[in-house]
């Protein structure tokens, strides 16, 4: 980081939802606090259950465990500071704190894009090559695919955050968002940012569209295989194995695309804040709900885990 930046701007001010009345902000605080706690609990339960239950030791739940870990990280990076701006009006964030928040936001966002593509590939192999599935998706392959999903987040987050925060900032330090996202922070820069903006646009398109195209290819092949199944029961069973993932992917990519690919004329800062809530707050909440309520194996595993916990508690008492 350039030393001049530190002397010009020592901290930023997150505008968050300051455009709303205080009473509405208090209600939002309560709502987001409940969502935050449920999200942490739900995703933590998925991690614990998929680790503890021997029946769930298959690739699908290995990747789901990674996704839940990702969602917890996403929430920890964004939500606590947002809650502080709502209830305590603690809207300031240090220069380093803002850079750190942006780094991990980009890191987790990129990793989730690629992890969702990896999960789509897993469903493709399971449905299109069921006999070869145990051989193709062995433990070594799953570990490599998970590592390949997490890795791109490191260089992308490092380049974007270091480059952006090396610019000189103006006297205005008000970030018109509830977290340090790249576009609103970029508006505070007092320098020519043309090259960075080209990089950001091309990078965003590649990071979002590449996994999205892989997911579309996977589900095109899956749909073709399902249509070849003669019985309606067989088609329903095959579709049910990937419906939860398809729903999660749709929620994530639709909200992400509406936030970053809408024309600026149709995307006011207030609208962008509301859209950003979809993939930073709502999607992490819905993931454990979708995978638990729409998945009999997960529901049965949760039931077994709770039963074991109660039995152990009664035995100790």
Please provide a written account of the structure.
The protein has 317 residues and is an all-alpha fold. It is built from twelve helices and three strands; from the N terminus they run αβααβααααβααααα. The protein has a three-stranded mixed sheet with strand order 2-1-3. The longest helix has 34 residues, at 95-128. The protein is globular, with a radius of gyration of 22 Å. The termini are far apart. 35% of the residues are buried. Residues 1-7 have low confidence and may be disordered.
Q: Quick check: average pLDDT?
A: 86
Shape type: globular
Helix count, DSSP H or I runs of 4 or more residues: 12
Order of helices and strands: HEHHEHHHHEHHHHH
Report the β-strand fraction as a percent range.
under 5%
Largest sheet, if any?
3 strands, mixed
Count every beta strand, where a strand is a DSSP E run of 2 or more residues.
Answer: 3
How far apart are the first and last residues' alpha carbons, in Å? Answer: 57 Å
């Amino acid at each position: 980081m350039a030393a001049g930046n530190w002397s010009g701007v020592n901290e930023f001010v997150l505008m968050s939802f300051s455009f709303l009345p205080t009473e509405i902000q208090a209600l939002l605080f309560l709502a987001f606090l409940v969502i935050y706690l449920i999200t942490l609990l739900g995703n933590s339960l998925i991690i614990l259950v998929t680790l503890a239950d021997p029946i769930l030791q298959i690739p699908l739940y290995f990747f789901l465990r990674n996704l839940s870990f990702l969602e917890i990280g996403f929430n920890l990076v964004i939500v606590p500071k947002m809650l502080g701006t709502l209830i305590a009006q603690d809207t300031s964030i240090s220069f380093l704190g803002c850079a750190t928040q942006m780094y991990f936001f980009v890191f987790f966002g990129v990793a989730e894009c690629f992890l969702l593509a990896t999960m789509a590939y897993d469903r493709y192999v399971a449905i299109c090559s069921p006999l070869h599935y145990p051989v193709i998706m062995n433990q070594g392959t799953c570990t490599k695919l998970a590592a390949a999903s997490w890795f791109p987040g490191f260089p992308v987050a490092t380049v974007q955050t270091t480059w952006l925060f090396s610019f000189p900032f103006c006297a205005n330090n008000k970030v018109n968002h509830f977290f340090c996202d790249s576009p609103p922070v970029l508006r505070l820069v007092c320098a020519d940012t043309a090259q960075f903006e080209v990089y950001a646009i091309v990078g965003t398109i590649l990071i979002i569209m590449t996994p999205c195209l892989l997911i579309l290819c996977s589900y095109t092949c899956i749909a073709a295989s399902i249509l070849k199944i003669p019985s309606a029961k067989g088609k329903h069973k095959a579709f049910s194995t990937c419906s939860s993932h398809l729903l999660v992917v749709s929620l994530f990519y639709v909200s992400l695309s509406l936030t970053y690919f809408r024309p600026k004329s149709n995307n006011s800062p207030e609208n962008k804040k509301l859209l950003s809530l979809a993939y930073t707050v709502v999607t992490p909440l819905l993931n454990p709900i979708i995978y638990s309520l729409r998945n009999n194996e997960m529901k049965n595993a949760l039931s077994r885990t709770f039963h074991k916990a109660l039995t152990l508690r009664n035995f100790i008492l």
